[in-house]
Amino acid sequence: MSTRPTSSPVNRSTFDQFMMPTYAPGAVIPVRGSGSRVWDQADKEYIDLAGGIAVTALGHAHPDLVRALTEQAGKLWHLSNVLTNEPALQLARKLCELTFAEKVFFANSGAEANEAAFKLARRYAWEHFGPEKNELIAFENAFHGRTLFTVAVGGQAKYMEGFGPAPQGISHARYNDLASLEAKISDRTCAVVVEPLQGEGGVTPAEKSFLQGVRELCDRHNALMVFDEVQTGVGRTGYLYAYQYYGVTPDILTSAKGLGGGFPVGAMLTTSAIGQSFSVGSHGSTYGGNPLACAVAGAVLDIVAQPEVLAGVAQRHGLLRNGLQEIGQRYGIFSEVRGLGLLLGGAVTERWQGDAKAFMTAAMEEGVLTLVAGGNVVRFAPSLIIPEADLNEGLARFERAAAKVAGQA
Hints:
Blueprint: H1 12-18, E1 30-34, E2 37-40, E3 45-48, H2 51-54, H3 63-73, H4 86-98, E4 103-107, H5 110-129, E5 135-139, H6 148-153, E6 170-173, H7 178-184, E7 189-194, E8 197-198, E9 204-205, H8 208-220, E10 224-228, H9 242-246, E11 252-255, E12 266-270, H10 272-275, H11 291-304, H12 307-331, E13 334-340, E14 343-348, H13 357-365, E15 368-369, E16 371-372, E17 377-380, H14 388-405
Parallel strand pairs: 3-15, 5-6, 5-7, 7-10, 10-11
Antiparallel strand pairs: 1-2, 2-3, 4-12, 8-9, 11-12, 13-14, 14-17, 16-17
Helix pairs in contact: 3-11, 4-11, 12-14, 13-14
EC number: 2.6.1.11
Protein name: Acetylornithine aminotransferase
GO biological process, one term: L-arginine biosynthetic process
């Protein structure tokens, strides 16, 4: 056996040969990107309406992010939590100044941020009300990550299959159904966990009255309200965080995805009073808050928090939604286009139930990257600053794909 790694070219079959089969990636392999366009190994161009699943909030290779990363790379990469660092402190201050938060915990992903949030909720209840107050309530069709705890809190049984037994003390109410939650919540409930807009669960926004009711029920039962804003945060809805759109302030909020613009980073935000329950040694992360991630995330926030950028999301929302509605009506493929800001989903009509991926596959062939949310929704999450010309071209390419799938090409 050779001890020297080969440097021969890689392709899609290399994935099957060497990587765990946890994904089924498409045949193309993008190798570079600029703004809202990427190019594959054959130099074919694609309009990116997927945004790395709502991650590349400012597109690919944004010069300010490249600058922040390369400048920090020449200074300091890692210290661990034995010491703090300037980029982490600066990012924490920005997040607190821009939101309700007074304290921040940094992690590397949305799942880690949620894991920290759920642990904090139980720890806070344990300290203030006793060990019996440990029950978590989440919602059906929710998605909170792939750790064992976050999968259990998520409301999709398929992600738990074969990984039991699940952590206990977790139940699920129906989303946008306040009576369902009211029937489950009690003084044993330590927290209610909710996505302001269910992403993986079908791009379904919460009703304002529902979230207001959740807040009231939490207050009545001394339960913490946890907002999972991993996908909806950092400008995705046209507000820096979706709770600001709804006018409902959570006790704990999690953020990731767009926060790093493509660089892995996660954050849990809360108040000083609640944050005190994470005392020294009670939780931690070796890489959480590392200087590279925090420098990039700080640059992302500096751009996204600008009022004109957030206003631009609302304008692009109208363009994308109208375009998708027209395509949906023309080819009879969407029963509804729903979502907030630049997180939109086209719910497929009965003819294509369970086969939304057919549109994603056809779109890729036409040179546009899209997503799905389950088997019945085609999902779109482009850059928050995607140029109007790219948005229009992406819609034109998606229409060609829709025509092919619908048999009208």
